[in-house]
Structures are given as C-alpha cells and as structure tokens.
Design goal:
By secondary structure, the protein is of the alpha/beta class. It is built from 3 helices and 4 strands. Helix 2 links the parallel strand 2 and strand 3.
C-alpha cells in the first residue's frame, strides 16, 4: 500500500464482518483509506480487495487478536508510524468479546 497523505484514513477494528464491516464500508464510500484490524488474515485480505475494487481506496490490514492486551498497543503504533506525518483521522473499535480478566 502506498502512503497517500492526500486522503483521510480510518482505522476500524472488527472491520471484516457485521457492524465493523458496515462502518468500514461507509468510510470507504466517503473516500477514506482504511486500516482494517481483525484476527483472520484471509478475511482481512478478502475485505481489503473488496474495498479497493469497489471504492478505489488504499487498504492496510493488520491481523491481530485484540483479546491480547499487547495487540492493542501494537495496532496503535503500526499505523502511527506508517502514516506519519499525516496520522490516522478516525479510529473505530468494533470487536466482540472482552479481554481476559474482565
């Protein structure tokens, strides 16, 4: 994925299905590049291809299980580094489950 600082970027967790997928679709429809985060790398790849073809946007995928507390920090740091100096414009967390210990 090329770093395109002219478009806005939205990070959506749980973006491969359900509400998260619909949220990602709405951002893509509005011209946002996407950073999709989910556990399943295959589903991420399929969704990214769909959004690229349908909306002509850039899509970055990060396969992480956010039930792991360390994964959230890794997800945060990766796009921040990738999209400097522009950064991420929106971040939406839509995932099932709760971290262990809740």
């Amino acid at each position: 994925m090329t770093n395109n600082n002219s478009a806005k970027t939205a990070l959506v967790t749980g973006g491969t299905s359900g509400i998260g997928h619909h949220i990602a679709h709405n951002f893509a429809k509005d011209g946002y590049n996407l950073i999709l985060v989910a556990r399943d790398e295959g589903e991420l790849s399929d969704c990214a291809d769909h959004f690229r073809k349908k909306h002509g946007i850039e899509v970055m995928t990060i396969a992480k299980d956010l039930m792991d507390p360390q994964a959230a920090e890794e997800v945060y740091n990766h796009p921040v580094e990738y999209y400097q100096p522009h950064g991420t414009d929106k971040a939406i967390s839509e995932r099932d489950g709760r971290p262990q210990g809740w």
